[in-house]
Amino acid sequence: MKKYLIFLVICVACARGFGQEFIFPIIFQDAVGNTDTLYFGYDENATDSVDSAFDENNIINTPYDPVFDVRISNEFDYRSHLSEPTMGSFHLKRQIVPINCPGYSTPIAIDIKCQNWPVTATWDSTIWKPDCRAGSLITGMPSGYWWDVSVPGGLYYYVLAAIDSISFTANYIGDWGIGSSAYIADNNDTISVYWVVFSDPSLRGRVGVKDISKSPRLKVYPNPGFGQFEFVTKAMVEEIRIYNVQGKEVKSEKIGNIIDISNQPAGIYIYVVELQNQKVLTGKFMNF
User: Fold this and answer.
1) What is the pLDDT of residue 149?
2) Any idea of the CA torsion for 112, 63, 57, 109, to the nearest 10 degrees?
3) By CB distance 3.0 to 4.6 Å, which of 96, 235, 246, 265 could disulfide with 41?
4) What is the rounded distance in angstroms from the CA atom of residue 1 to the CA atom of residue 156?
5) Torsion sign, CA atoms 68, 70, 84, 138
6) Chain mean pLDDT for the chain
7) Is the peptide bond prior to 118 cis by the omega test (within 30 degrees of 0)?
8) What is the C-alpha separation between 190 and 171, in angstroms, rounded?
9) pLDDT digits over 116-134, tens only?
10) What are the phi and psi torsion angles at 77 (to 5°)?
11) First vs last C-alpha separation in the chain
12) Cis, peptide link before residue 224, omega less than 30° from 0
């Protein structure tokens, strides 16, 4: 298991257009310090499959690390969108795809097996300024759901040029998210799925969100806190559910917007707040 942080090494050859090769890494680190790195990029000669010419190596037959493993794959499309779901055809640590400008690329799926959530993703935000990739983003929502307002892991839409790191949790809570943002692998592991999309700035308008670097507003008081927490939002709260980082529900409340988990151990917890307007907000907080 990797216990060190791999420093960013950026290879950028595309300063003006989308014809030349562009490659960048994202470093992923779990809550106890394990790290893994994926490499993403585009080139006019690339495909959406496995390209040996771009040093892409298919490791689909290599078992997931039982503690922490991050991969690029096409398994989600196969398992979620077919009438008879099957495994995908590749697992990669590096993928170069074709790109159009203006426009956006096919989303690149990130599969994460993790025992110790949350995960923090880190990248170099300075390389995203050119117009043809200034709208590129990382998200926990598949492209068919870009107009939605909630996602189990709390990873909404974050523009890669606007920030250089983000923390998020598993993209499923109980059964919520299975099939829409996570899948069950053949060994019964539950794999969370996230996406990177190369795009010009017009993608912000397509997803219909004014500021896609911010999630819907909900505040938790206090955070960190000691046992009792209040969830403050403008809409009426219908239900609050609290989960530990392993995805187990530890408390729920359907009356009011205050919940008490003083009987739970200290640590990070995940909230799912259902509102009267049928929106669902998620996030995390610290209990001492």
Assistant:
1) 56
2) -20
3) 96
4) 29
5) positive
6) 81
7) yes
8) 10
9) 988 999 999 999 877 788 8
10) -60, -40
11) 29
12) yes
